[in-house]
User: Fold these one by one.
Assistant:
Number 1:
Amino acid sequence: MTRPKTRHTGSLLFEGLVLLAAIWSFGPSPKGKTTEADAFEVNDEHLHLTNYVQEGTNIRDFLNIMGSKVGRAAIFGIPLQQQWAFGNTGNFAPTYYLQTDAPLYYYSFTDAVIAMAYRSLPPDQQARLDPMITGFNPADMYAADHVRRVLTTFPGVFTGIGEFTIHKEFVSAKVAGETASLTNRALDRLLDFAGDVGLIALLHNDIDLPFPKPDQEPYQLVQLRELFLRHPRTTIIWAHIGLGRVVRPVKDQIALIDRALSNPALPNLYVDLSWDETAKYIVASPETVRHTADLINRHPDRFLFGTDEVAPKDQTAYLKTYRLYEPLFAQLTPAASELVRKGNYARLFDAARRKVRAWEKVNIKDTTQ
Ligand SMILES: [Zn+2]
């Protein structure tokens, strides 16, 4: 286990630095002076390094794109591959799920691609990234076994699982095979395993269906709540507060999230403010900004910023969503803003790193890996 040990030392050193950074950033800083830790503006807990046809940004280029703006990022591929079906689109090669009627299928090799890219980096660059396992079918009882296998094959690399999707507008219905569901025991098995290991779970599940009828029951809400309650030991980050391109906020959504985050039975639930499609609802008007800011100021340790960019080409494209949220950040208290942009990421992902490395030490016997 020489390699994991080396990494462990590296990660301890890094955690020490993070602790120092936290002390610096929360401590009094003389007016007008920028401390070293202030230099990074934000951490990104939601970044797809590759797209729906498994092509993407070289990991070294991505670190340059993070530059001096983004301190750390949770990185993953996309679990689904868009099939290029000649019978459907002919010579047109689709790169996005909306460009063809051909199905999507689970592409597990994505995890190996991410792991190998991460391992090609020197320790100081690895310390800025948290790779996530995502190439599993959440409707398969064997999903948890895939995660175990990836951890065993690539020890010292992964911090969480996701982003993986159960209900997503335009996507779920296109996935080949059994449709994923919040009530599937395979998902329970997966989240139980994530809890055992200490892996963070980043889950995409729309809060409602697209274009609901006025009195249509948002049944996913009930199922989602029950799912969160069934897995109190698993840290779950709910992506995009359940919003989508056309999945709009449900009635009283802010009150509903407020209740969920105030529920002592749901200490494991966190919310991700990623995707420009989510930002468009939040910054839609001065009222939506104010109500969202009030909610975050009430629960500052439960929200994380993410970009949800897919294979970004440059820093301007990469930080598009971050810029969209400027009006929101402006209305957060300084402490809440710091937590949402950086502090919550550091706390959750550092804890997960420690737990996963400890699990690997005990559970991976084959030292030839
Ligand atoms: Zn995403």
Note: The pocket of zinc ion is lined by residues 46, 48, 163, 308 (CB under 6 Å).
Number 2:
Amino acid sequence: MAEAGTFADRVKQQADIVRVVGEYVQLKKAGQNFRGLCPFHSEKTPSFNVHPTRQIYHCFGCGKGGDVFSFVMEMEKCEFPDAVRVVAEKTGIAVPRAKERSPQERKQNQQRSAFVEMHREAQTFFVQQLEGTAEGKAARAYLEDRGLDKSAIDRFGIGYAPSGGDALLRILKQKYAEKLLGDSGLVSRSEQGDRMFDRFRRRITFPIANESGKIVAFGARALGEDQPKYLNSPETPIYSKSNVLYHLDRAKEALRRSDFAVLVEGYMDAIAVARAGISNVVASCGTSLAEPQIKLLGRFTKRVIVNYDPDAAGQAATERSISLLLEQDFEVKVLALPGKADPDKFIREQGADAYIKVLKESPPYVDYLIARARQMDLSTAEGKLRAVNFLLPYVQKIPNRLLRSEWATRIAQQLRLEEPVLRAALSRAAAERRSEVKTQPELMGRAAKPVERRLIRMLAEGEGFRSELAQQLQQGQLYHGLETEKIFTALIVASLSGEPVQPTELAASLEERDR
Ligand SMILES: [Zn+2]
């Protein structure tokens, strides 16, 4: 009923059946599913089940079942188009003007089918080019270099767009009108608009399929030094990048079975991870994750391990994704690969087993973010304030109070803040709907604790064991993040030198307030 690319299909992808049904039936979580009293027959014990991952409902009492649209049709006693509208409204999707099957709409449907067909033909063409031409041979050599052998090429439909400039165009022109070709995303127009040519030239092509497995776009990597290095299809009537997750069509079953997804940035990463045996991988594909993509993924699982590139852009994308995923009630872990590697590079260099091992050890996003906050300079009050304000928006997104409270404890411990003061500052920010803590001198400018004073004294005066104590403190890095960190650093350096500690020299190396 909901054909790929149609409005109904888009609504279905974004709607959450549990929420929609939940407006009619009181549902309780029962294992993976939700259960309630059937609205279609009279019963005292619940036998009406809603499956969030499969997006269907079923009643074991009366046998009724279906998807979100058939549920609304039954409840509202309406026809399919009206049910689509109702679900769209409940999901917050703007409904196009209601002219069902107008000549206009029929034309759009025909166009979409033509675009899908063109992409199928383009795919056949690209695959032939990679397999059977001299240019394609160079592309195969490149792929081999990247560790992609014949079986990988076949499995992921990798192809090659030749350098000629109109080879694909000439084939498509035999069947399709010029106007249609221009809107397909496969063909570009010259700036004057008088000439058309292939959009992808001298590039390795990766087919991008929608959820039901139809190719709706291509990603393409330059074979030489051409810019941009990666070129994707533009937005077309059948492709909107924020509505598509690369590899989802092939990952569906594994996502349901394993009940978690690995989220990576690009198609090369997704291919590498899938080949490592983790087929429940999807890629947000060049762009950072968008809300429709998250809703789409949420139909299969609500648990995600984010494994983006560890560079600055990747870190920013990771943090943005965490926010969005938390808003949609996902359970989020983050894998930051050692050695600044992206998944593709890591797997090529370390192997699949090494990847699976680190994947299994991925920490919850909490630990990832705290680790990021700890990289900030925590030795000053301003630095601590920055770190707290970096974490605060995430804390505020945690819907569960208990979890939120656990967080506060851990942040206080890890950033070495006074917990009650941090809590007070957090709840003040929440009450005033602010996403940052204003300057709190009492929160940040903490005095040295007795044990810190005692250790400092021992370092300064304990002639006999000073250097051993200094060594121990340094190895354990026990003084890191303390208000007195700078004093410890100076004293430890002095103690390890073996010379007697000179108070005046030491003082000269410290700032005013530490002296
Ligand atoms: Zn029933």
Note: The chain has a mean pLDDT of 86.
